[in-house]
Amino acid sequence: MLISILTTGTRGDTQPYIALGLALQKAGHQVRVAAFENYESFVKEHGLEFYPIKGDVSKVTTTDSSIAAMKADNPLKVLFSFNKLKALVFDLQKDFFNACVGADAVVYHPGAAIGYFIAQRLKIPAILATPFPMTPTRDYPALIFYNTPRLGKTFNLATHKIFGKIMWFASSSPVKQYWKQEFGHAPENFTSPFDKQNTQSLPTIVSCSNFVFPRPNDWSEHVYNTGYWFLEEEAAWKPSPALLNFLEKGAPPVYVGFGSIGDPALAAQTTALVIKALKLSGQRGILATGWSGLSNLADIPPEIFILESVPHSWLFPRMAAVVHHGGAGTTAAGLWAGVPSVLIPSGNDQFAWGRRVFELGVGAKPIPRKKLTAEKLAEAISFALTKEIKDAAKELGMKIQGENGAEAAAQIISNCVAQKTPA
């Protein structure tokens, strides 16, 4: 069977879907991954078919609308920021549709909600593949509400329904506009697809560990918390002699990186803050500049090593702790590595991951980016490196490593496609 996977977002957002694609390929399927043009080589080097979504995601994420969306630190700001992103999202719909032509099933990220309607038109199964739990439950609040006061099970359920409406609000107009332009009318049954993804032919699969967010009992049997979809990153990748030398000549360092999050105008200031915090906590550090969240200053002390990027699966297990922005993928990589975490959230679900890491006892209390100081970061690093936290992180890492999330998700999709039941 040919299975089309629709992804959105940055490299960290795309990577789990490549892992899923590889598991599907191993199960005997042909897999086509639709992702931003930036990731053509990333997809193809893993032996998967690539379909380009036009646009440079590194430029898209630096627009005012995208920056506002990434920094939205409460549900109302999330709603407003998603509204501003609608114009950018419209341009993706045609590519998403074309990526599914000839497919036997569509697997789609919640940011590519058109996948449901494409599958409906093509009379093939649709699988919602989400990097975070979003099916309504009474057990815990939706991620964008997770850091708010707890008001009971009814409130929890309501927050998920609100979050689903916000996600649908971000996609509905662009999908409807494209569909009318292409077919002269809105899609059939044009309501939120997320509410419908709970049957055998319309399942939901979640890339999240059951040891991080246990599967709620009030979910449909066709909503699956499979475990994380981890990619064995760049098997041919080799560390530089300089990096190896730095690692070998001292105690395990602390990793600090903010991925695609960060203000280039504040990069030098943030880097100086991080270096000061590492000095105050008595730790060596490896700083990843990413997309200009940090910078390579002229006067770097010998206890600090600066690089642009490095596969998390290789580096994180070699670290004493990891300090990052709290993206879902980076958080998962830190937990899998079995080392303590310190999260510095800026917006959206990052606050939820920060709180959850602290609740699980595998990291320090998160520090909102707006309130970050060298002293606070030093204190958090020292707390994260206490024996209790290190032991808990190691234990959780071993449990997560025992899950085979991508393989489990691939089996669910294979079963769904085998039924050949249309959406």
Automatic annotation (TrEMBL):
GO terms for molecular function: hexosyltransferase activity; UDP-glycosyltransferase activity. InterPro entries: EryCIII-like_C, Glycosyltransferase_28, GlycoTrans_28_N, UDP_glucos_trans. Residues 4-139 form the Glycosyltransferase family 28 N-terminal domain. It comes from the Bacteria. One of its GO terms (biological process) is vancomycin biosynthetic process. Residues 294-407 form the Erythromycin biosynthesis protein CIII-like C-terminal domain. This is Glycosyltransferase. It comes from Candidatus Chlorohelix allophototropha.
